[in-house]
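FAQ
Q: What does a multi-component entry look like?
A: The components come first, one per line:
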Amino acid sequence: KNEVEQSPQNLTAQEGEFITINCSYSVGISALHWLQQHPGGGIVSLFMLSSGKKKHGRLIATINIQEKHSSLHITASHPRDSAVYICAVNHYSLYGGSQGNLIFGKGTKLSVKP
Amino acid sequence: EAGVTQSPTHLIKTRGQQATLRCSPISGHTSVYWYQQALGLGLQFLLWYDEGEERNRGNFPPRFSGRQFPNYSSELNVNALELEDSALYLCASSLHLFGGKAYEQYFGPGTRLTVT
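Then the predicted structure of the entire assembly, as tokens:
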């Protein structure tokens, strides 16, 4: 079982729809990241969370530490939102402390149709 | 402010050769991370350098190695190339990890390595 699981793997939406992508993790973490990867390969960091909720424009990210779950929401989706969205975590343990490197989910490929 | 830069953009090698990939972090960042993204697969962690030292290593064979220079730029070396090493290699940088606090990572555009 992967340490970071995302769902769904693929998502097709109509322009204007509200979109939710889910992420569950099974390890201790110091932070959770949502990343966006466009077809050219470039990766952009959207959010880094350790608790609560963050909002940037039409994007909202939430995290529930007790349930080890995070969601990324896109309101009023647009074709330019089409990309792969990746959930990643910094692993934390009492023994090893916080690791700087990220552990990634497999990504959610989002396609928004006009 | 310049972002993370990587060179070369594309690299074509044959099996058994060595490849060297380079990364320059954002000014002020001391941590550099290397990740591999093979076609159809997710991102996998390769190596993490901070302040000139290797801090962590992913589940890759020893022929994947690297180093970090005094100016915090980094080099990834892949020896004895195999066909399955063909992938996009991404470098990211962040501030120095201190006191258990994680920082946002900034990614470079990647180097696409093709092994024939």
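Q: Is there any commentary attached?
A: Sometimes. For this entry: Residues 41 and 84 of chain A are 10 Å apart (CA to CA).
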